[in-house]
Protein: MAP1B protein
Organism: Amazona guildingii
Amino acid sequence: PGNTKVAKSTAVPPGPPVYLDLVYIPNHSNSKNVDVEFFKRVRSSYYVVSGNDSAAEEPSRAVLDSLLEGKAQWESNIQVTLIPTHDSEVMREWYQETHEKQQDLNIMVLASSSTVVMQDESFPACKIEL
């Protein structure tokens, strides 16, 4: 009644896990939409991490840390590959600071030196076999 506001969460609600082969982390890996619960529930062999805007905190360090925390709660230690779409300072720092934990959790960060050239544009690329 009156002026009551209900907070709406955009994060994944609790529930049973969903298993997928490939997941694009939504909203440029922004922490407003992706948290530990996302990684506890949305379990994938490959996660694509987008975002190359440090002013907008993309990709978010909190999202990358949430991957580690969420994956640590999985019952099995299946291999997970993280595929960044851009080289960023956040990604490099996170990789270096958490490398040992990544290894313990069987998480591999894929770096690609391959480039695709189409018409007048070139961009980094990697091949994923499912």
Summary: The chain has one domain: 16-122. The CA atoms of residues 17 and 96 lie 29 Å apart. The helical segments are 26-29, 36-41, 61-71, 89-97, 99-104. The longest strand covers residues 42-49.
